[in-house]
Amino acid sequence: MRVWLRSHAAELGRFGVVGFAGVVLNLAIFNWLRLGPLSEDSTFLGQQDRVVTAKVIATIVSVIFAWAAHRWWTFRGQRTHHPARELIIFGMVNLVAIVAEAGVLALSHYALKYTSLEADNLASVLGIGVGTVLRYVGYKVFVFADNPASALVSDDADAG
Fold first, then answer.
1. Entry pTM
2. pLDDT at 42
3. In sequence order, what DSSP letters do the residues of the chain get, joined into one string?
């Protein structure tokens, strides 16, 4: 594991910088929507509470930012797909992560009834954590791998 971490330290650092910027963007847009156009008092898009809608919109914007940053910086030497195909695969990986992120928020907000802005932000951050793990693995295995089918297997073999 230590060998793997050392050999991937720069990449993990870049992933972390892009991830941090994406989290800031995600939370800023989520809070702007949650307190503005999609607030509880707003009639935009109907009368329902639109907290999950705000989360999904914020996540989609941050995903588009992350794709560009990862493509041209984090994984710049590992691109093997045509950009359009890469974006589709990237989108599919992120769809899984968005469902996980929104699911954590929906569980907290609707099932557990933690409906304050603070609770929604905490659930949002927890969901981002789950989504981040899913994204990193998905990017390494499917999106930016030299040989997508063996990306993690070869890393594990090198670490042993």
1. 0.68
2. 67
3. -HHHHHHTHHHHHHHHHHHHHHHHHHHHHHHHHHHTTTSTT--TT-SS--HHHHHHHHHHHHHHHHHHHIIIIITTT---S-HHHHHHHHHHHHHHHHHHHHHHHHIIIIIS---SHHHHHHHHHHHHHHHHHHHHHHIIIIIS-SSGGGHHHHHHHHH-
